[in-house]
Design a protein that fits this description.
two-stranded antiparallel ribbon, binds iron/sulfur cluster, 371 residues, 2 domains, alpha/beta, eight-stranded mixed beta sheet, globular, 21% strand, 16 strands, Alpha-Beta Plaits
Length: 371
Amino acid sequence: MKKSIVKFASVEFDKIDPSVTLPAKFDRLLKSYNLRNLVDGKIVALKMHLGRELGYTTIHPLFVKILIKNIKEAGGEVFITDLLLPHLKDFGGITARDRYSEEMLGAPIYPVAGVYDKYYYSKKVNFKSLKEIQVAGHIHDAEVMIDFSHFKGHGVSSYGGAIKNIAMGCVTSKTRQSIHALHSGGSGIVWDGNLCDHCNKCIEECRYKANSFDDENKYTVSVHDCTYCQHCIEICPNNALSLESKNYLDFQEGLAIATEEVLKTFLFEKVFYINVLMNITLMCDCWGMSTPSLVPDIGILSSYDIVAIEKASLDMIKSDTVLPNSLPMGKILVKGNHLFEKVWGKDPYKQIEAVAKKGLGNIEYEIEEIV
Ligand code: SF4
Ligand code: SF4
């Protein structure tokens, strides 16, 4: 099979000159495509994750502005879109609109499924408890989608990039919850009640207060609070805890199904992907916080193939270990083939494989570097 093209603008520079830095290269990367073919005379949804609360490592507005300028010059009518739910009133009143303003970027910002999250198109699916995907109305109505994603870690799916920006970002809250429900207990920590004598050591020693025994005396972990430090696993005297849950694979399949349903609403050549490999943090931007990068900045990738760009993005993260202060104190790396697997105990390539199996893209790619 012919390899898919992934274009790459690197953060590397060979002289002290703005023209060799990433924003200039990003502009050249966009101009290396015939964007007029993609957007001329079309309504273009620019799907981003605009972040929450105290997060400051979402895509820098300068790159958004460069992209919008290129879309407009190529004849597209563009709007930015993300969840922007009314209840996402954040820390001290800080919201996504404090990071990205319509005036500054030159494009309106619309809540993806309407102000009240009720504007959607229902698609029937059938995977375990997942029976419906509610595709966000503003995505469904657009003629072109540009999936502009910040590439970073994620506790349940190991990483978040182009796939997650669609699967969790182009649907309603109800669908997001249904996909999350697929990984019930998805912390990845498995408790064996036959081995546990309820000594309570694991509860007492969890410095994040993330674990507890429920009303039925079953061990539970809050995926919101758990840092996956695995201390509870290590100190359990009876080996009643382990990190081996495969539930996360159901979550990946849920992501793939939602991605497929969203992409069905577009022609293949009318969706364009851009992954920003900068500020590659431990957690997703939905956590409303930012932490130091796990690895040095890499650059920006683009492609018409969602599988190829995700695979290339993961492959570009080659480090075996993380930068200082990028993990919560006490969290340790586990065994794994990719850094994200070492961080989260979950194989990040499974997400891509699930999408590739649906015929949505090509795992084989070749890099064209923009200089
Ligand atoms: S440390 Fe192990 S044996 Fe003790 S309560 Fe926790 S899971 Fe059970
Ligand atoms: S992995 Fe760490 S944070 Fe999570 S429940 Fe166990 S001790 Fe607590």
